[in-house]
């Protein structure tokens, strides 16, 4: 859908590509950017699966500002969208074209309305349930730049990271139900900005904690929030990560949305990954929304599965003795 708008914008002259490098902020894996000259495109994303996908397609992934122009692929979160637009406007040569593209379901219309009050925005092109518009780079969006925030517990967060305004309810439940003592090697799968990891490090017996997080901004926050030398930080796709040594414990509050839609496959992939990185006597501690269909996957991956707590919306599960794959 994005490719249709890009092609029409270039054909109609709504977006005129300048000479020089083009920065493309936050495209998603599978987005077709072939209408753009690949040899002049730099893809800029902090989400590891998307990064790896575009790197495999041969795109340059190393930041190299200033850019002659930019394309911002709008994310859903409003503060994150603003921060990306401010970053792009500051990274393009003054007056260079900055295109913003997004689906209507991702809030493109409200973002364009806000932009019109701040910059000379061109006429929006509508196609394939989304819109694209262009404005000249300049300092007008400096007030939208990403700003770090201190929240409850002294944690540092940034726009765009999961649960940026406070601890997630599910993670808080899981943290409160972890045992007083854990095994020496622990993995926090999808560690975010470090809330669960801090709870893990407060338990007895932990000698090493691997924090695995696909969102680079979130992992940078975790680095700031956790200074314990036992912590090791990994910018990685949690579903593909493998620790140096099998772990005694994996803790996780896996994501269950892809865009606006619930996607249980994400949580199922986390369960499969956890099974593969646990020692034979290891345990998975997982919190999940009650409506998610994880039971069959858990019983297929572990010999013992028990619900140990939760509330009306979430349940905390302890799964032990991972089944070995044939």
Describe this protein's structure.
By secondary structure, the chain is α/β, with parallel strands linked by helices. It has 2 domains: 2-144, 3-Layer(aba) Sandwich (Rossmann fold), CATH 3.40.50; 149-322, Vaccinia Virus protein VP39 (Rossmann fold, 3-Layer(aba) Sandwich). 28% of the residues lie in helices and 28% in strands. The protein contains 9 helices and 17 strands. It has helices at 2-12, 48-56, 78-91, 108-116, 169-177, 195-201, 216-225, 264-277, 295-301, and strands at residues 22-25, 41-44, 69-73, 97-103, 125-127, 130-136, 149-150, 156-157, 185-189, 208-213, 231-235, 247-252, 257-258, 261-262, 278-289, 302-310, 314-322. The strands form 4 sheets. The chain has a 7-stranded mixed sheet with strand order 11-10-9-12-15-17-16. Strands 2-1-3-4-6-5 form a 6-stranded mixed sheet, sandwiched between helices. The protein has a two-stranded antiparallel ribbon with strand order 7-8. Helix 6 (195-201) links the parallel strand 9 (185-189) and strand 10. Helix 5 (169-177) runs parallel beside helix 6 (195-201). The chain is elongated. It starts with a helix and ends with a strand. The model has no long low-confidence stretch (mean pLDDT 95).
CATH superfamily of the largest domain: Vaccinia Virus protein VP39
Within the largest sheet, what's the order of strands? 11-10-9-12-15-17-16
Q: How far is it from the N-terminal to the C-terminal residue, by CA?
A: 41 Å
Following the backbone from N to C, one meets helices and strands in this order, namely HEEHEHEHEEEEHEHEHEEEEHEHEE
What is the total number of structural domains?
2
CATH class of the largest domain: Alpha Beta
Average pLDDT metric? 95
Query: Would you identify the CATH architecture of the largest domain?
Result: 3-Layer(aba) Sandwich
- CATH fold name of the largest domain, please? Rossmann fold
Helix content: 25-40%
Percent strand equals: 25-35%
Number of strands: 17
Radius of gyration, Cα only, in angstroms? 22 Å
Shape: elongated
């Amino acid at each position: 859908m994005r490719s249709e708008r890009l092609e029409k914008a270039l054909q109609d002259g709504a977006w005129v590509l300048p000479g020089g490098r083009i920065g493309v902020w936050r495209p998603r894996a599978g987005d077709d950017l072939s209408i753009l000259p690949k040899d002049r495109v730099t893809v800029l994303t902090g989400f590891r699966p998307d990064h790896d996908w575009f790197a495999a397609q041969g795109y340059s992934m190393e930041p190299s500002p200033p850019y002659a122009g930019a394309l911002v692929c709008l994310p859903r979160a409003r503060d994150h969208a603003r921060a990306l637009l401010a970053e792009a406007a500051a990274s393009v040569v003054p007056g260079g074209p900055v295109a913003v593209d997004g689906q209507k379901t991702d809030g493109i219309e409200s973002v364009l309305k806000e932009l019109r009050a701040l910059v000379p925005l061109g006429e929006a092109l509508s196609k394939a349930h989304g819109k694209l518009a262009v404005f000249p780079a300049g300092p007008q969006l400096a007030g939208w730049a990403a700003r770090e925030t201190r929240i409850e517990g002294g944690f540092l967060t940034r726009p765009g990271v999961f649960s940026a305004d406070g601890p997630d309810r599910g993670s808080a439940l899981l943290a409160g139900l972890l045992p007083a003592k854990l095994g020496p090697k622990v993995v926090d799968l999808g560690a975010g900005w470090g809330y669960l990891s801090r709870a893990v490090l407060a338990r007895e017996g932990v000698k090493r904690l691997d924090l695995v997080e696909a969102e680079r901004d979130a992992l940078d926050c975790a680095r700031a929030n956790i200074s314990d030398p036992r912590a090791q930080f990994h910018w990685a796709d949690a579903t593909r990560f493998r620790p140096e040594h099998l772990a005694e414990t994996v803790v996780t509050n896996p994501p269950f949305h892809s865009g606006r839609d619930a996607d249980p496959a994400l949580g199922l992939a986390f369960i499969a990954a956890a099974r593969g990185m646990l020692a034979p006597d290891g345990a998975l501690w997982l919190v999940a929304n009650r409506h998610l269909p994880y039971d069959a996957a858990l019983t297929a991956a572990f010999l013992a599965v028990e619900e140990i707590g939760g509330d009306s919306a979430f349940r905390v599960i302890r799964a032990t003795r991972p089944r070995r794959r044939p």
